[in-house]
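Incident review: delayed structure delivery

Summary: a single-chain prediction request sat in the queue longer than the usual turnaround. Root cause was a stuck worker, restarted by the on-call engineer. No data loss occurred. The affected request and its eventual output are reproduced below so the record is complete for anyone auditing the incident later.

Affected input:
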Amino acid sequence: ILCVRSDESYLEETIRKTKTGIAARTKEEALHFISTQYKYWLKAGYTQTEPDKKEIEKFSRKSQAEQFMTIFDTLIKD
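Output delivered after worker restart:
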């Protein structure tokens, strides 16, 4: 993921925690990211990333459904 320009807040924090890309604050950061990924793609045929799968799981449909179930259960009990 390349986020241009960083919100310097939650989106940047999420990208950093999940290790899925960069939230660039400067043109130089964006250019470096693109250049690095492009060079890797030329050699390997795909871009390089090693995301934190445990962090990403928080955004899965299953995880979100469980969160909604918890909210609905709380509302029903109240």
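Verification: Strands lie at 2-4, 22-24.
Action items: add queue-age alerting; document worker restart procedure.
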